[in-house]
Amino acid sequence: xxxxxxxxxxxxxxxxxxxxxxxxxxxxxxxxxxxxxxxxxxxxxxxxxxxxxxxxxxxxxxxxxxxxxxxxxxxxxxxxxxxxxxxxxxxxxxxxxxxxxxxxxxxxxxxxxxxxxxxxxxxxxxxxxxxxxxxxxxxxxxxxxxxxxxxxxxxxxxxxxxxxxxxxxxxxxxxxxxxxxxxxxxxxxxxxxxxxxxxxxxxxxxxxxxxxxxxxxxxxxxxxxxxxxxxxxxxxxxxxxxxxxxxxxxxxxxxxxxxxxxxxxxxxxxxxxxxxxxxxxxxxxxxxxxxx
Length: 292
Description:
With 292 residues, the protein is an alpha/beta fold. Helices cover 41% and strands 18% of the residues. The strands form 4 sheets. An 8-stranded parallel sheet has the order 5-2-1-12-9-8-7-6, covered by helices on one side. The chain has a two-stranded antiparallel ribbon with strand order 3-4. Strand 7 (145-149), helix 5 and strand 8 form a beta-alpha-beta unit. The longest helix has 22 residues, at 121-142. The chain is globular, with a radius of gyration of 18 Å.
């Protein structure tokens, strides 16, 4: 664990479309970092330069930094040309640079649809790995670190395929973004038990939401089957010094985003902090928190 505890972040668009409300709620919850996925009804990829500057100014005014860019890159069909995704990635890198973060979340592409020619699992992993390798090379040139999120319905959804992708790409610019709920959503109810040895050492980012397999409910940390208590313990033992980014999805969980509202985000933050206290891990509060 980081010397003074882990830093919490949160997906602002889980709170509101309005940036000022996002930041106001984060300050009220004593969370000093924003995970930028969307604002003003726009995905981060589609923000223009003026809007990016407005985000930067507002964050500075509130004393809140951007932890990572929650980009949609790689959440696209594996059969589409890679050139467009690389162009999208270039734009995301520029946004990351303007907002003072070097961390960008990516995905590993959707398999062909049922009406398309089926690919073997080996071919899917090979193609997704080649794309992630090209993306990692672009990140290296830009001085950016990518983190690959496990996600329902894409190539890298299970522990085994995530491990395969990370093994094949094997780039210092590609880390792993562990999402406990997404693993449970594909039947991996023992992802930490089964996957820590292979994915734990590569984990550079963690999304916090939980999932109950028996009901299909997305829940706050510790209330589902995501083994988040065990995940925190393993992160602590490994000396993890990255972020815990709240992505609760308590009111709505969609293909490209989720929503919790201010009350839901408060519930999620309270649950995570309670779980952290139970397993004996600390938190590094933002410097302005003592005066709130």
